[in-house]
Write a structure and sequence with these properties.
By secondary structure, the protein is an alpha/beta fold. The chain has one domain: Class I glutamine amidotransferase (GATase) domain (Rossmann fold), CATH 3.40.50.880. Helices cover 32% and strands 23% of the residues. The chain is built from seven helices and eleven strands. The strands form two sheets. The protein has a nine-stranded mixed sheet with strand order 2-1-3-4-11-10-9-6-7, with helices on both faces. A hairpin with a 3-residue loop joins strand 10 and strand 11. The longest helix has 20 residues. The protein starts with a strand and ends with a helix.
């Protein structure tokens, strides 16, 4: 099997490792079958799509809607690299699954708009599939409604031209969409479990996702939520796109 490529942007080594391990487990792959590149550490370079079965992009603290003057050199470089890659995978209709940050990367293509209109606090919320989501090869096996962990400052305010809306919450109209037949983005995190989301709540306590006094209550609520379904998307992505 050709390996999958995993792209990360988290500067915190322990959180970055936890994210990769969770995606690895969710996909049911070995480390040699899910090759990791940490974009916050260096440039991506040219990607030969023919060498890969598919590409998975993780989340992180970067937001495309951050003020330009507030973006670090690493963020600017990652955004530029991912813009080139996004245009490449969309043009080739190549298997791509971007979680959370994937919304920012893909959502601004083809006259789409990503801004701060539909941000949601950290926690678990019901995600509902659209009719197109229920018929989609990746999302179709999922329940019509499921709980998912999320927490984001930005979201898609206007879908890119030609995008297919696959899922929404009550407070964020675009939680998943597809471009072409094989390029996907989710606003929620399919890889998260209660331990991982609590660790992220701690790791990003100074990033403006919540007020300091909310930290322990957010963790308690996350532990109580029964989030079981989103991780199935990772195994399904591999099932659909693994190539010999």
């Amino acid at each position: 099997m050709r390996p999958f490529l995993f792209l990360g942007t988290r500067a915190e080594d322990d959180v970055a490792q936890q994210e990769y391990d969770a995606v690895l487990a969710g996909c049911g792959l070995r480390p040699d079958e899910l090759v990791r590149v940490r974009l916050e550490q260096g440039p991506l370079g040219a990607v030969d799509l023919a060498a890969w079965s598919g590409i998975i992009l993780g989340g992180g603290p970067f937001n495309v809607s951050d003020p330009e003057g507030a973006k670090s050199a690493a963020q600017c470089r990652a955004e530029a690299d991912l813009r080139v890659l996004a245009e490449q995978v969309v043009a080739a209709d190549f298997p791509f699954l971007g979680a959370c940050y994937g919304i920012g990367v893909l959502g601004g293509l083809a006259d789409g708009v990503v801004d701060r209109t539909f941000g949601e606090p950290i926690g678990a919320l019901p995600v509902r599939l659209t009719e197109a989501g229920r018929e989609d090869p990746l999302f179709g096996p999922m329940p019509d409604e499921f709980l998912a962990y999320l927490g984001h400052k930005e979201a898609v305010a206007r879908l890119p031209e030609g995008a297919v809306l696959l899922a929404s919450t009550d407070t964020c109209p675009v939680h998943a969409f597809r471009l072409g037949h094989h390029v996907y983005a989710t606003q929620f995190h399919p890889e998260l479990d209660p331990v991982a989301i609590c660790d992220r709540i701690d790791a990003y306590s100074s990033h403006g996702y919540y007020a300091p006094h909310e930290q322990e209550s957010l963790k308690a609520a996350a532990r109580e939520a029964l989030v079981t379904e989103p991780v199935r998307l990772l195994a399904r992505f591999v099932e659909l796109y693994a190539r010999g």
